[in-house]
Design goal:
3 domains; disordered C terminus; about 425 residues; about 20% strand; 15 helices; four-stranded antiparallel β-sheet; alpha/beta; Arc Repressor Mutant, subunit A; globular
């Protein structure tokens, strides 16, 4: 049996909201990273994956449970660990060589030794010749290579990667993934294990020996899938495509998210997905074009491939469509319902009217805002009035995002108007009735 590098037992993490209430980010996470494996943690943004990585690295403490590194509790930064982030996090005033040397300098490695090791890492990662260049001279892919060189130069035991390819274009990300896999397969580094956080299903399958699927609210393990496909892996092989379909089915095995969440109190704790109405309309139109009487249900894997969507692109749109009552998602497939088809068939004003009705009926925050505006003699209310209510349930950033989404959806449906300069919500026509 492989030696365990990390062992997480019932790990939980809470943060405090503005009013001091606990916001549960992680709940009872049990996870093992073993020697000799690349483990991919797959889930949507906001599911707590990055928080979990920081607990493992010893950068923050867990609120519950325990994190063990090679059998010992993680009580501070893990010394034999390196991290690579989505942002390149390079110091712009330092050269490539100086950026790579930083970790060694912090460990008080003598100058001659750290320069030798830094040059070797730069050569290993494919940046030989750029030692004296500054970050501004490099492309995004080259800057991320510097990040990898900086991580590998300390000869780490384990590498934690937080969506390191997501800020890169498709071709650059593919090249860098393949180069990293080559180094891993050739044993060219000191690494004994790798944990990659991703929201890209195909990336997870390409990289991983084992995939852990993360659910949200709170973040937790919902499934584990071994990946037994030989490397290099072919995206177009039937086995690869079957695994993509399987993961989509797992990730959509229940509504996204709980349909009853919006009925709690005023529903202000519900995290509206931050998607634009234009993208929602575009997706509904695309689904209407793809469906046929014989196949009204569309494969999410095929949809994502055709439209170049990642999980974080597609799932918020699906969540919004379900929330608004325009589609159903289950077992890796999506289907427009009668309301969705009627919406697509309508003209602009018919679409706005239908959207407004669904928005007010199905989003409790929308109904609450409209009720306040209707009841006030001036039919006006400052945005902060609703923001303060949201912050009783959500973090400040999340509350701001949710309110911005509600305002954008409300403006499209002509449910409300908004003065951005004054930060005031109102009714354009105070004498009008709620949309029917």
């Amino acid at each position: 049996m492989a030696t365990e590098i990390f062992t997480l037992q019932n790990v939980g993490k809470d943060f405090s909201t503005a009013d001091g209430e606990a916001l549960n980010i992680l709940g009872n996470v049990n996870l093992i990273l073993a020697e000799g494996e690349i483990l991919t943690l797959l889930g949507r943004s906001g599911s707590g994956k990055s928080t979990l990585l920081r607990i493992m690295a010893g950068l923050i403490d867990a609120s519950a449970g325990s994190a063990l590194y090679r059998g010992r509790p993680v009580l501070g930064p893990v010394p034999n660990l390196a991290m690579v982030f989505q942002s390149f996090a390079l110091f712009p005033w330092l050269t490539v060589l100086e950026n790579v040397e930083l970790g060694l300098e912090a460990r008080k490695v003598p100058k001659a030794e750290r320069q030798k090791r830094a040059l070797a890492a730069i050569d290993l990662i494919g940046l030989d010749g750029y030692e004296s260049a500054y970050p501004r001279e490099l492309s995004g892919g080259m800057r991320q290579r510097v990040g990898f060189a900086r991580a590998l130069v300390i000869d780490p035991d384990v590498l934690l990667m937080d969506e390191p390819f997501s800020a890169l274009d498709v071709l650059t990300a593919e090249t860098l993934r393949n180069d990293l896999l080559d180094l891993w397969m050739e044993g060219a580094t000191s690494l004994k294990g790798v944990l990659l956080v991703s929201h890209n299903i195909e990336e997870a399958i390409l990289m991983a020996d084992r995939i852990v699927i993360f659910a949200s609210n709170p973040g937790r393990v919902s499934a584990e899938i071994p990946v037994r496909l030989p490397r290099p892996r072919d995206r177009q092989s039937p086995e690869f495509r079957e695994l993509v379909e399987e993961i989509y089915a797992i990730m959509t095995a229940r509504p996204l998210p709980r349909a009853d969440a919006r009925r709690e109190a005023l529903g202000l704790g519900y995290r509206l997905p931050a998607v634009s109405v234009n993208r929602l309309v575009g997706l509904m139109e695309a689904l209407a074009e793809k469906e046929s009487p014989d196949t009204p249900r569309i494969s999410l894997a095929e949809l994502a491939e055709d439209m170049h969507f990642s999980v974080d692109d597609l799932f918020p749109l699906l969540e919004a469509l379900e929330l608004l009552g325009f589609a159903q998602v289950a077992e890796g497939e999506v289907e427009l319902n009668a309301s969705g088809r009627n919406f697509v068939a309508g003209d602009l004003q018919e679409r706005k009217t239908q959207f407004a009705r669904h928005f007010l009926e199905r989003v409790a925050l929308a109904a609450h805002i409209r009720r306040v505006l209707d009841e006030r003699p001036s039919h006006r209310a400052p945005a902060n009035r609703f923001l303060n209510e949201l912050e009783d349930h959500l973090s400040e950033d999340e509350a701001q995002r949710v309110l911005e989404t509600a305002i954008a959806w409300g403006r499209y449906g002509e449910v409300l108007a908004y003065d951005d300069n004054a930060e005031v919500l109102s009714l354009e026509n105070p004498g009008s009735e709620n949309p029917q």
